[in-house]
Amino acid sequence: MSLRRLLLSLIILYISTSCKSDDESSSVLITKADITGSVNLYDEGTTQIDNSNMLVKIEGITPEISALTDNNGDFILYDVPFGNYTIVYEKEGFGKFKRFDLVHENTLTVIPNTPSIGKTSTTHITNLQVNTIDEDIVVSITTDPSGNLGNTRYIRYFLSTDSNVNNENFTYFSPGLISQINPKEITLSVDDLSSAGFSSGETVYVKVYGDSFFSNKYYNPNLERYIFPNLNINTVNALSFVIP
Question: Is 164 helix (H, G, I), strand (E, B) or coil?
């Protein structure tokens, strides 16, 4: 082979190899990207506190992908493979919060709706009384510390026809309630109880827990019920009443 033909062959081989390399590079798929978000942290009331050092991680992924929030409550989860995820928020003194079904695909994902996350309640329920007055049910709840104008406490009650009613076994749960008097009285009318799913003549059990203003409540689709991470489990036994 002449020198000229050899040089021509080498040039063609180089061009062919370069084009193939460029084609292969352009066909590489991006399969991961970052997830970013923020949190706002509170005490068990409404006072915002230091937003830093909350651990945020992706549940069930190995190796673990996690990050700590900065002073602004911001975090970045780096190089997360595309998929649907549950995001877990944890910090000592706070009830664990979870966010389900985050869709992460194609590019950077910014978690919407920054959660406000409160500390676990220090409110103990120390006494519970139930009385029927006319056709109303009056529930009296004593807390420690006691609720007053200078020290607002937060509580939540659960109802069921099952005597084993608790925060995991219930028919109805109340919204978070403010207690600024001890004992705190809650009046339940027949209509209230009917709206909660109960009927006249039924025996209903009530259980009460201390909670926080920002309760970290979330719905767990796997368990098909709500989770209340900030409840104080130091409480008294459930009491019953019969709906008039």
Answer: coil
The Cα 140–Cα 151 span in angstroms is 18
CATH of domain 32-118: 2.60.40.4130
Q: What whole-number distance in Å separates Cα of residue 169 and Cα of residue 109?
A: 36
Has domain 124-242 been given CATH number 2.30.33.40? no
Same fold, 32-118 and 124-242: yes
Whether residue 69 is predicted with pLDDT greater than 70 in this model: the reply is yes
22 membership: H or E segment, kind and range: helix 3-26
The tens digit of pLDDT for each residue in 218-235 reads 999 999 999 999 999 999
Residues 163-179: tens digit of each pLDDT = 999 999 999 999 999 99
Instruction: Let me know: does 115 contact 97? Beta carbons within 8 Å.
Output: yes
Q: Model-level pTM? A: 0.85
pLDDT surpassing 80 at residue 20: no
Residue from 133, 132, 155, 131 nearest 142 by CA:
155
Q: Is 22 exposed, middle or buried (0-12, 13-18, 19+ CB in 10 A)?
A: exposed
Residue 189 has pLDDT above 90, yes or no: yes
Domain spans, the chain: 32-118, 124-242
Residue 65 CA, chain-centre distance (Å), reads 19
Mark 102-135 as b/e (b = at least 16 C-beta within 10 Å): bebeeeebebeeebbbbbbbebbbbebebeeeee
CA–CA dist 210, 152 (Å, integer): 11
